[in-house]
Amino acid sequence: MKSTVVAPTPIKKTKKYTDRILGIYDKNTPGPTIICICGMHGNEPSGVIAFEKVIEQLRHQQLPIKGRLMGVLGNMSALEKGERYNQYDLNRLWTAENMMSLQQDRDHRTFKDALEQKELHETLTSLLGQNQHPYYFIDLHTTSAKSTPYISINDTLRNREIALRYPLPIVLGLEEHLEGTILNYINKIGHISLGFEAGQHDDPLSIKNHEAIIWLTLFNTHCISGADIPALKKHFEQLSGSINKGKNVYEVRYRHAIASGEHFTMNPGFVNFQSVKKDQALAINGQGSVKSPEKGLIFMPLYQSKGDDGFFIIRKIRWVWLKFSAVLRRTKFHRVLHFLPGIYRYNALNYTLVINKKIAKWFVVEFFHLMGFRLKRKQGNFIIFIKREFDVDAPHH
Q: Are residues 208 and 341 in the same domain?
């Protein structure tokens, strides 16, 4: 039975911000650097409000901290208008090509979201050059549909290790379907990063969930001891009490990408982690009914005007496979994969492999996910996989 989705109330505009750094709390004691990215989408002000509440409490009580907590604003102009983005989604612009242009200072894009990206990139580059390792990035988001809070990560063991400390569901594999996210960029340069979805855009509970994830991050990274965090148990229960599917790990199986002119409309009533059947009608478009390609759980159904991700289908991963995959990765088993039938190294590199589906036929994607590879491209009978960088070990800075 479908759950009832409450129609969102009008989004309140946030105040006008003039500084991209939302706030810093630092007691000049060595420790990690936590950077919260707030408001990557302008219709998601919850993370901005929550960060300001947390840092205000830290300053008021002068709590001891090892390392530094920082908040950085994403799309400032879109936040002021209360819209997801201006012309292009800021959280899809962090492609390899765009980043090369920015780093070489030859970017000539002039639309607002590109200018926001350039300023945000300059801010992050400056912060990465002056603070202490390790860095933990938390990208704070909300969703258009009512949702259980959850964490999404690129599936590296380093990301997993920190994500599993939270009492929340974890979703793997979004980066195979969403190009150009800021978390992909952060992982590629070697830092740990988590995406956190707190709930529906306009639900006041989302602010409380964002506050809770910031406090738990300070605890989980050993920046602040549990004894010094006000109401730590309450924050833990705030998130653990929101789980209606248990603390599980899921992988993305399918994404419905909305084509230009498709006239996509999600059927009402779907919520994150809701079970769906194969061929169940989930939405409508110009060609008729849009159906689920397989049995699973619906994920991120689109109930807003902007965006090109209609919905995803996910499924639960058994814990035994997660443990097995960790063993395989730590023993560097991927180095011998090219000796197996139908698997070839691309350009003599162990971390980019080409698979011939005519030879390697069964559970190819699942197997390579175990090894820490991400699916890059399908081309005829061939599939290209790339090993996720800095999966087990941090880079040497």
A: no
Output the pLDDT for position 245.
56
> Higher model confidence: residue 130 or residue 290?
290
How many other CB atoms are found less than 10 A from the CB of residue 73?
24
User: pLDDT per residue over 327-381, tens digit each?
Assistant: 999 999 988 888 889 999 887 666 899 999 888 877 788 888 988 998 888 888 8
Whether residues 40 and 148 share a domain: the answer is: yes
Please tell me whether residues 182 and 279 are part of one structural domain: yes
255 lies in the same domain as 350: no
pLDDT tens sequence across 67-113: 999 999 999 999 999 999 999 999 999 999 999 998 888 888 999 99
Which residues lie below 8 Å from residue 334, measured CB to CB, with a gap of 6+?
328, 350, 351, 371, 372, 373, 387
**Do the domain assignments include residue 227?**
yes
Asked if 274 and 127 sit in the same domain, the reply is yes
Domain of residue 375 covers 328-387
Q: Are 309 and 371 within one domain? A: no
Q: Say whether both 310 and 336 belong to one domain.
A: no
Cα-only R_g, the chain: 21
Residues 6+ apart with CB under 8 A from 70: 21, 22, 23, 24, 25, 33, 34, 35, 36, 127, 131
